[in-house]
Structures are given as structure tokens and as C-alpha cells.
Amino acid sequence: MVDLELIHDLLTPADTKILLFVLDGLGGLPVTPGGPTELEAADTPNLDRLASDGMVGLHQPVSPGITPGSGPGHIGLFGYDAIRYQIGRGVLEALGVGFDLRPNDLAARGNFCTMDAAGKITDRRAGRIPTERCRALCAELRKIELPGVKMFVEPVREHRFLLVLRGKGLEEGVADTDPEHAGAPPLEVTAERPEAEKAAELVRRFVAGARDRLAGHEPANMVLLRGFARLPDWPKFPEVFGLKSVAVAQYPMYRGVAKLMGMDTAEVGASLDDLLSTLEQVWSRYDFAFVHVKETDKAGEDGAFDRKVRVIEEADRYVPRLMALKPDVVIVTGDHSTPAALRGHSWHPVPFLLWSTTCRPDGVKRFGERWCLEGGAGLCRSEDLMPLALAHAGRMAKFGA
User: For residue 39, is pLDDT > 80?
Assistant: First the structure.
């Protein structure tokens, strides 16, 4: 476990910049025996050049065999122990959309989903309905009445929405209703501890009301809820690591986790070009930039191997623009693996490359899982990447006499 106090004590000032380029769900698997992963199949001359000039390895987001969600995956990349610093998805969604989340609010991330006549889920994402449709359905859900609390239902993006309950005595400990796979009914709303029973009963009423109000609104005729949480008080990234920091991300959830860590955020358009243009506009004002690409993860979750390959190749074409900003340290990686072969997140370690002028050459010439196994960085924990970046940026003093 990285000791955040030790890292802070070893910080030394430097006029250097760090860039963290995250291709969400980057890690993959072959779809044919002996075949390449998505990253290995992609034509990535620019990433290969960085790998050749830097060093590569694999990182473990949580622990061997543990499949991480997006929240823990990014918390680890930001240098925090993902087991110690746990947070429900609801808080991240709330912060990501700029909701005024208060300390005693209880927030959950919602999905509109498709449910058949037998009450079983046929699509957990309701065909990724357009965001405009999501807005209209959220307005319908706001008509649900819950006694003794104020309820907020806010659209996020596509099929995602935010549920916030505001009132007294709303404790964490409400279980998710999302079974995480199709072919099963939504899970019953339960309290995982006695103190959460009041909140659980309110959520039961909300789910029942949603079922009634969404009837006939196929493909979005039901809701799934997960990540019930309240706002925590954590050490802030800029103070811990001594970096004025910004997150450049398209999806609210990733802006949310960055805000939770105390970073500034920049909203961007839908394309990679928009992402890079925004980064170019803000780069001069910051020491650290986290840049997030979502489409790799979406392709993996859809089982679209070839599409994930194309997204990686498109990202590779933007690497020269990243390097034109003259960062002192660049890390390219994912927050977790999302193999198209599994159509979801997995426990497999994630490939990464670290480039700087102070890298020790490891002889690896390409960026991919097989080559990262041979890299000089070896297999490390996700939270180790930030101390490595600080050291290569000349921002860490010697430990001890």
C-alpha cells in the first residue's frame, strides 16, 4: 500500500508536467486460441515508439483475481489504495454532472434497462438510448412521491441517470438492484445493515413507482440502481502529490472521481479531437492532466473486438499531438481490462507504458500484453504508478540519510 503521507513528505518542487492518458478498459484477451489481444492486434506505431523509448509493464488495479469497477480502477491510478478508499458509483455520478451533493445525501447511479413480460432483464442499458430520451424519462420519474425526503432524478448520459435522496437518517448500506447480467430479474431492494432500512424502504417505493411509470416505454421500461453512497472526506490529490491537476473527460462519472480527488475538470465534446483540443487549451495551467477515452471500454462491453482495435488505433494517431505539448512524463494505460471476449470488466492485469527521458531502457519495442510481461516495470500495483511518475518527473526527494 502506498503511504500517502510519506509521498507528501518526499515531494520536492519541480517545473515538470505529467500526462496520464487512460484508454478505459484497455486490457484484453484473444478471441481465438493463440491470437492477439485487441491492443496487440492494433496498429500503434506511435505507442510502440513510446514503449521503445520508455518502459512497459502490467499493473493490478485491486488484487489478483479481483475484478474492479471503474471507480476503484481510477482511484488506484490516482495513487490511492482502492480497497481502503472505497466509494459507491452514485457519488461519482453526482459530482460528474455537477450536482450539489451534500454530506448527508444518499446517491445512486441508475440505468434504464429493458425488461420482458416475465420480469427478466433483456438489456441492462436499454439499447443505450439517446440522452434526450433519458432526459424525458427522468422527468417522468420525478413524478414519483417519496414521504419525508426530497428526491432528485437527473440525466447523466445515454441510459444513465442519477438518483439522490435528501433527508434525515439516510444511511449507506442499500444493496444494488443490478444483477450485472441479462436473463435475470432486477434484484430486490435490501438493507445490508439495520441502519440502512429507512433508505431501503424509500428505494423500494422508488423502484415500484419507476416500474409503473415506465410501463410501455420500451426499450427503457425499468431501472437498475447501484452504488448507493454518501460523500466521503478523503485526502485531496493536488495536496498529496503536489500537482495542480485537471481531468479532461467526456463522461460525467470520470469527471466525478476526479472531482472527488480534488482535481479541476474540463468538459469536452464527443470526439477524440475534441478531447485533445480541450487538453491543448488547458495544458499550460496545470502540472498534471488526466485524459480519459471511454470508447475502448464500450467496445469491450459490447463484445466488439474489431471496434475496440479501431478505437485503440484512432487513439494512437493522436499521440503526436500529446507529445507536442512536451510533457516530462507520460503514462498510457487503462483503469482495468475489458476483454471483448468476456463482454465486461475482468481481473486481468492492465498493460501500461511510462515514457520520460529518465527511463531505463528495457528492450521492449511494442506496446501490448505479451510485451508488457517482458517489460522492465514488471507487475506492480496501480497505486505505484503515481510515485513512479513523480520520481521520473524529478518531484521526489531521497528517502532517509
Answer: yes
